[in-house]
């Protein structure tokens, strides 16, 4: 068992004190019996000679201490078996409890083995199962379970791709050779240094209209891991075959009738009608898209036509998002440096029932788990607690926890009934612990360009929010490097806990036409909780936008006449009228009544001239009988231009020519 792994089995009466326990990074499993004493850990009603293999999920990752350029691999096989199989007890009584503190040597009619395929095969024929769980109740149609992990270290000479095969006998409910299983995992260091872990529960009991997911994640819980090509890893689910465990029929590349699976999400759904009822092994490859790196999964699936009263799982608190259609999966997000407390309620179908909880996931050592009484009779809740979420080497940041609740009612004829009948639909919690970043701007959009006009009052909102709810936004200011243009107004900051907002307003002046005004805003937060080395995010953020004012275009303001507008541009109303021949009565107010606040017409205030080769500021002014000062007044972006510097060919300028001044 790896350092930090833990076996978690708790049984208690309703009045018992409920402890909290630390869990290992690798596998979290909880068993709770709520009322009467434990059921014996051996098969109840299992067919004589039936197989003892339940499921297996295999992935690989580069060894932690591997040198650069090394192809050292850690294969991880998580598998589940019939605990009462007599060979596990040295051929003795299967009613004896297994010693879960010791590794279990896997045996069978065909001894399970793991083979590295190559020019010379390397076969590991003595496989030790480090037990992470031994159910204290009949869990499936075949009987009770024992579950654990097997680790195999191997160093390849090349990047690959390479193959490794896990095989043995016999499958649940099946006899002899017809029950043999074989699954293959692919190693490709040329594409990725891992194949995804698939932390699913050992078996899925589903009724029509329900579904289950086979979630994939980086073995160490890395957020958005990258592959060799530098892109974020995307996973793909490929169905290999389905084995009917009642008849032995093998369906290559096909699922039972009425069952579908999405290859892009790994979600398997049972149709409302037409599903083929029975017990199956579903065999999948889960690969990193674009590489030859793939994990392998053999999942036990039981499709039932008759649905008994079953325990139900509710939505987590704080509320997450529904992750996968047709499942109970949820997606939740937390921040480093802030306590993660997650409550997941479930309700038994009877207050007199006893129950067991099976939970599997990739969790950091610091996470604790407890089962508590709920607010109403028959209800309970699972609490996951991470008091100080930090990012350190080998600590998970993306966690997937899958769970199922099994119930035994006092009225059940056989305790074995609960093992394969009264089980909640599986649910997987996708938990992301994100870096506690600085506040983010929700509006405007970074580098947005606002197209405004002279004379028209325009505005936009600057809003920020801090996704760490306990942080407070301390400031939202204009950067000193980008001062406000004349007459532009920025309102006072409205601070509201983890959010802040300001308004920017401006009626561009007649001298601002053609100008590009860059504005940058800065925000900063104050941490609500601070743990040393846990808050890795920046505290400040900056966003810049540009306000661009149109050339030669003016919106007449309230109660302005044409003569008023002409004075803004140092010309006369006759020349302005000539530029706007559609005006009918240029000698009165333009476009609205006295005392009206409605804006008037959009006026052309000059001619648009396209700069030609060799044009410079003084030459253009001379060409049109005007002055450099007048050109700059009409084109704000020329304020910094030198008189003799050539202007960019094709650039547009606003010109009010005065031919009377030409020689």
List the SSEs and their pairings.
Blueprint: E1 21-22, E2 53-62, E3 71-82, E4 104-105, E5 110-117, E6 122-124, E7 128-134, E8 145-156, E9 162-169, E10 181-187, E11 203-206, E12 211-213, E13 235-244, E14 250-252, E15 259-261, E16 267-270, E17 278-288, E18 294-303, E19 312-313, E20 321-322, E21 330-335, E22 340-347, E23 354-361, E24 368-373, E25 379-386, E26 398-408, H1 416-420, E27 427-434, E28 440-443, E29 449-454, E30 458-465, E31 472-478, E32 489-490, E33 494-496, E34 499-506, E35 516-526, E36 540-555, H2 562-568, H3 573-579, E37 602-604, E38 607-610, H4 617-623, H5 628-634, E39 652-655
Parallel strand pairs: 11-18, 21-27, 29-36
Antiparallel strand pairs: 1-24, 2-3, 2-18, 3-8, 4-7, 5-6, 5-9, 7-8, 9-10, 12-16, 13-14, 13-17, 15-16, 17-18, 19-22, 20-21, 22-25, 23-26, 24-25, 26-27, 28-30, 30-34, 31-35, 32-34, 33-34, 35-36, 36-37, 38-39
Q: Any overview of this molecule?
A:
- There is one protein chain.
- The protein is mainly beta.
- The protein contains five helices and 39 strands.
- β33 (494-496) and β34 form a beta hairpin.
- It is elongated and about 115 Å long.
- The relative contact order is 0.10.
- The model is unreliable at 1-49, 134-143 and 415-420 (pLDDT under 50).
């Amino acid at each position: 068992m790896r350092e930090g792994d833990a076996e978690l089995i708790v049984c208690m009466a309703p009045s018992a004190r409920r402890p909290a326990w630390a869990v290992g990074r690798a596998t979290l499993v909880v068993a709770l019996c709520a009322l009467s004493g434990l059921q014996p850990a051996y098969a109840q009603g299992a067919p004589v000679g039936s197989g003892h293999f339940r499921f297996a999920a295999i992935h690989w990752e580069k060894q932690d201490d591997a040198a650069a350029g090394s192809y050292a691999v850690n294969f991880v096989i998580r598998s589940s078996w019939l605990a009462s199989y007599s060979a596990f007890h040295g051929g003795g009584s299967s009613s004896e409890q297994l010693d879960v503190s010791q590794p279990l040597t896997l045996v069978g009619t065909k001894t399970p083995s793991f083979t590295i395929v190559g020019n010379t095969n390397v076969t590991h024929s003595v496989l030790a199962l480090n037990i992470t769980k031994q159910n204290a109740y009949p869990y499936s149609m075949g009987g009770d379970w024992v579950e654990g992990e097997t680790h195999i270290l191997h160093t390849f000479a090349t990047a690959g791709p390479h193959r490794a095969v896990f095989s043995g006998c016999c499958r649940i409910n099946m006899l002899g050779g017809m029950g043999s299983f074989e699954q293959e995992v692919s190693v490709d260091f040329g594409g990725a240094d891992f194949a995804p872990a698939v932390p699913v529960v050992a078996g899925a009991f589903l009724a029509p209209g329900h579904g289950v997911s086979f979630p994939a994640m980086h073995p160490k819980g890395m957020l958005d891991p990258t592959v060799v090509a530098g892109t974020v890893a995307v996973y793909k689910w490929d169905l290999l075959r389905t084995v009917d465990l009642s008849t032995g029929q093998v369906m290559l590349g096909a699922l039972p009738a009425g069952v579908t699976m999405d290859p892009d999400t790994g979600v398997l759904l049972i149709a409302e009608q037409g599903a083929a009822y029975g017990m199956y092994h579903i065999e999948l490859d889960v690969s990193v898209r674009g590489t030859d790196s793939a994990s392998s999964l053999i999942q036990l699936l039981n499709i039932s036509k008759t649905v008994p009263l079953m325990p139900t799982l509710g939505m987590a608190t704080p509320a997450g998002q529904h992750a996968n259609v047709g499942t109970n999966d949820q997606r939740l997000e937390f921040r480093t440096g802030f306590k993660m407390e997650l409550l997941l309620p479930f309700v038994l179908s009877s207050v007199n029932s006893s129950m067991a909880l099976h939970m599997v996931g990739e969790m950091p050592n610091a996470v604790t788990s407890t089962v508590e009484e709920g607010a109403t009779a028959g209800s309970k809740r699972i609490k996951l607690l991470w008091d100080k979420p930090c990012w350190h080497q080998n600590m998970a940041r993306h966690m997937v926890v899958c769970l199922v609740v099994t119930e035994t009612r006092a009225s059940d004829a056989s305790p074995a009934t609960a093992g394969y009948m009264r089980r909640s639909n599986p649910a997987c919690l996708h938990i992301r612990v994100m870096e506690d970043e600085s506040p983010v701007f929700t509006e405007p959009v970074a580098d947005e360009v606002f197209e405004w006009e002279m004379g028209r009052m325009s505005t936009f909102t600057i809003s920020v929010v801090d996704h760490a709810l306990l942080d407070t936004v301390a400031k939202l200011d204009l950067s000193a490097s980008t001062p406000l243009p004349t007459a532009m107004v920025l309102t006072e900051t409205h601070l509201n806990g983890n959010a802040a907002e300001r308004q920017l307003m401006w009626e561009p002046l007649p001298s601002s036409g053609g100008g590009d005004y860059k504005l940058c805003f800065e925000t900063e937060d104050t941490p609500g909780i601070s743990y040393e080395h846990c808050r890795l995010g920046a505290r400040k953020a900056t966003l810049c936008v540009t306000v661009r004012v149109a050339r030669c275009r003016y919106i007449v303001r309230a109660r302005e006449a044409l003569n008023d507008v002409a004075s803004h541009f140092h010309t006369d109303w006759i020349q302005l009228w000539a530029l706007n021949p559609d005006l009918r009565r240029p000698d009165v107010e333009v476009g609205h009544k006295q005392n009206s606040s409605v804006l008037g017409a959009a006026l052309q205030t000059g001619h648009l001239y396209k700069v030609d080769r060799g044009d410079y500021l003084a030459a253009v002014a001379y060409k049109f009988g005007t002055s450099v000062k007048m050109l700059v007044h009409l084109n704000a972006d020329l304020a910094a231009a030198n008189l003799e510097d050539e202007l960019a060919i094709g650039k547009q300028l606003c010109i009010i020519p005065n031919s009377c001044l030409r020689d």
